[in-house]
Specification:
Two copies of one chain form a homodimer. Chain A is an alpha+beta fold. Chain A has a single domain, classed as Arc Repressor Mutant, subunit A, CATH 1.10.10. Helix content of chain A is 48%, strand content 19%. At the A-B interface, strand 4, helix 6 and strand 6 of A face strand 4, helix 6 and strand 6 of B. Strand 6 of chain A pairs antiparallel with strand 6 of chain B. Chain A binds a DNA duplex (30 and 30 nucleotides) through helix 5.
Chain lengths: 168, 168
DNA sequence: TTATTAATGTTATATTATAACGTATATTAA
DNA sequence: TTAATATACGTTATAATATAACATTAATAA
C-alpha cells in the first residue's frame, strides 16, 4: 500500500512536499520530452501549496495573482490537461477539483480520502483494492480500463478533536 | 454481492425493470411519508427508460416533452435532489449524470461499472469491497462516511464483439 | 375554511468547461 | 542563421452544469 495520508493529515515540512513534487515533475518532463513551461509549473506548484484540491477558477485567481497578469480559463484548463496527461495531478470528479499526485510513477488506484471537515485529500494506491475491483468486474464480464475512487469522511486531525482536548 | 449487471448489459424485458423500480419508489414514499408527485415520478421513470445515466439537461428536455410544457432547470434539480435523498437514484460525479438505483433498500457500495463504449452503467454492492475500503481507511485513521466508486471499461456486450461474430 | 406546509413556477445568475481563431515562442530542418 | 514547423499561449465567445431568490400554486392540517 502506498499513501501520502500521514503527510497530508498531519503537520509536516510542507516545503519538502512541494520541492519533491516539482523535482519529480521536471524529471518526468525530461523523460517524456515534454515542456514544463512557466504556466504549467505555476499551476502545479499552486496545486501543491496545500493538500487541498483546488478548482479551476481558484487556480485562475491564484495564477493571475502569482504571474501578475490576467489569466483566462483556457490557460488554466490547458495547464491542467497537460499535467493530467503526465499523471502529475488528478481530477476529483465529485469536487470538480484538482490535486497534485504524490507518486506519479507508481501503480495507481485513483483512490482518494477526502476529509469532509477540512477539505484535505490524500491518495492511496492499494493492490488489494485494485485486485478486488478487477475481479469483481471480471465476475460480471466487465473489462476494467480505469477507475475513480473517492472516499469521504474525517481525516485523523478532524476525527479526534476530543481526544486532543482531553489533556486540558 | 448484489448487482444488476447481468440485466443492464444484456437484452432483457426492460418494462419489468421500470415497473419494479416504480413500485419500489411508491412503496418507499409511503414508508417515508414522502410525496411522489408527477414531476418526481416522471424524472424517475425517465431515468429508468434505459440503463444509461442521464444529465440534468437531458432530463429537462425529455421531461418537457413528456409533460408537454416548458420545464426550467430548478424543477429538474429539485426532483433529482428528492430522489437522491430517498436513495432512489444516484449521481455519477465523473459524468455529471444520474441513474436509477436498482436496490434502494439494500446495503450499498456506490460502485458503478460504466461502459466507455455504450454508456450503460450497472451498480454493484459488494461487502468485501466495502470492508477493504473501510479498513484501508482505518489503517490511516480515516473515518469513512461515504464513498463514490466508478469503474470504467467495457461491458460484456461491448467487450466481446469478435466472439459474437466468430460464429459467422 | 383558514392556516400552514410543501411543491412548483419563474427569473436571474453562479460555476465549470470548451470551441474557435489569432499570436507568440520554441524547435527542427534547410 | 534563417525558414518552416510545431507547440504553447492569448483572447473572445459561449456551452454545460447547477443554484439563489422570490412568487405562486397545491396539498395537508387545524
Amino acid at each position: 500500500m502506498l499513501t501520502n495520508s500521514r503527510l497530508v493529515h498531519q503537520p509536516h515540512d510542507h516545503g519538502r512536499c512541494i520541492n519533491a513534487a516539482m523535482t519529480r515533475a521536471h524529471d518526468l518532463c525530461i523523460e517524456q520530452n515534454a515542456r514544463m513551461t512557466t504556466t504549467r509549473e505555476s499551476v502545479l506548484r499552486l496545486l501543491w501549496q496545500s493538500h487541498r484540491p483546488l478548482g479551476a477558477y481558484q487556480l485562475q485567481d491564484q495564477l493571475a495573482e502569482l504571474l501578475n497578469k490576467p489569466i483566462a480559463p483556457p490557460t488554466v484548463y490547458r495547464a491542467i490537461e497537460f499535467l493530467l496527461q503526465l499523471g502529475l495531478i488528478h481530477r476529483l470528479p465529485s469536487l470538480n477539483a484538482y490535486i497534485g499526485c504524490p507518486f506519479p510513477n507508481s501503480e495507481h488506484s485513483n483512490l482518494f480520502l477526502i476529509c469532509t471537515e477540512c477539505g484535505s485529500a490524500s491518495e492511496m494506491a492499494h493492490a488489494t483494492i485494485n485486485n478486488t475491483l478487477q475481479s469483481a468486474g471480471a465476475k460480471v464480464n466487465f473489462t476494467l480500463q480505469s477507475q475513480s475512487l473517492e472516499l469521504f469522511g474525517l481525516c485523523p486531525q478532524c476525527s479526534e478533536p476530543l481526544e486532543a482536548d482531553s489533556n486540558e
